[in-house]
Amino acid sequence: MDISVLHNSILFKGFDDTEISELLKALNAAEKKYNKGAMIFSSGEITDKLCFVTAGSVTVESNDMWGNRTILNLVGKGQFFAESYALLPDVPMLVDVCAAEDCTIVFLSMKSLVNLNDMIRSRLLANLLTITTRKNLHLSSRSFHTAPRQVRGRIMAYLNTVSVQKHSREFDIPFDRQQLADYLNVERSVLSNELSKMQKDGLIRCRKNHFEII
Amino acid sequence: MDISVLHNSILFKGFDDTEISELLKALNAAEKKYNKGAMIFSSGEITDKLCFVTAGSVTVESNDMWGNRTILNLVGKGQFFAESYALLPDVPMLVDVCAAEDCTIVFLSMKSLVNLNDMIRSRLLANLLTITTRKNLHLSSRSFHTAPRQVRGRIMAYLNTVSVQKHSREFDIPFDRQQLADYLNVERSVLSNELSKMQKDGLIRCRKNHFEII
DNA sequence: GAAAGTATGTTGTAATTACAACATTTTGGG
DNA sequence: CCCAAAATGTTGTAATTACAACATACTTTC
Known about the structure:
Chain A is of the alpha+beta class. Chain A has helices at about 5, 15-25, 85, 120-145, 150-165, 175-185, 190-200; strands at about 30-35, 40, 50-55, 55-65, 70-75, 80, 95-100, 105-110, 170, 205, 210-214. The relative contact order of chain A is 0.14.
């Protein structure tokens, strides 16, 4: 198991190597590999597992009965997912989680939190609070990205956020066209078309997933 | 100050009256009244205040420069807001918070958490974790309500969620037409029109904010 | 490096939504 | 009870998007 990625995670911030090893054991840490496209969780499932991405990436998404996909979040290496469901273990998942690329996930049992001693547990809970709080901001961000009524507005809202995060007018995005379309809740073809127009209008330049705001 | 509402809140779950009184003092609890329409927080502000609604309700919303409003959440009596920003005190707010009706808010300083003794603080943090986790599910819910591309789909997604929550096919919603439109990210007139059609099609019945799914 | 498969770009049409303008209903004071 | 103001409903038109169908470009594999 790749302990170095876990070591640098928010969850184990402030814990030393020995403590982390013990915690991994206490929380029944289990690692599993998935191929691109594999489904890790399906809507309706119940889980108490806090999930950590040690390699690759996954999408948290909603798929309706007509095959329309909405991507809520892309979770990359070093980040967590399913924390809300893990901490509220009677709530069935509202989302699917799929491997966006080949990936490796470490599952941690939150049911086992009760077995930890008070001191360790409260340090862990404090870190979990940071994780959920940041996740809140992430979910809010997506709301702003999908708030504009028009496609161009959504694209600009998203690109501006990424630009600010990366402190640069030039950056890569983690989505391919279909994923970006599903994240912004628009048609892929309409997205491609609008990106072309925005380049003609001199607003942006882009090639594949590399973007520049002008 | 209306201590009974606070007493039943998630934040103070497990605390007795004496402890709550001490905590309110330690967290510099301050109460303030707002008239309908008043702005409680503006986008860009920084705060360390956890906010609790003791009367009335507020909307967490985003207002763009063209006057378009997007409602992310309606926070009613007995619920909290701004918890993410209170806990990440260097992050400027991405949203506005407005009084949806005349309301009363209690502000609790999260900066003061460090002054509490370890035991009390960790109990409080555990409760805060519940608050943020539930808020996560709320934000996810809205994503599902706005995921359908068409207005009718959004309305049904929202009404179904409320129906499930209230365990009944007949229920009141907390939004008026304009608020519901801004929550679902559609035009008010288009929403009204679609609701009429849905009634003609025998899908629902509604009058003001009372709905019935058929 | 050719072929097959996947991702992205382009275009046209049908369907839907945005927006404005106005009609009707409801609400809250006087 | 009446009036003014606010909320909700209705309608038509312009603008935008969804969807399908196809073209082009890029990748992967043999």
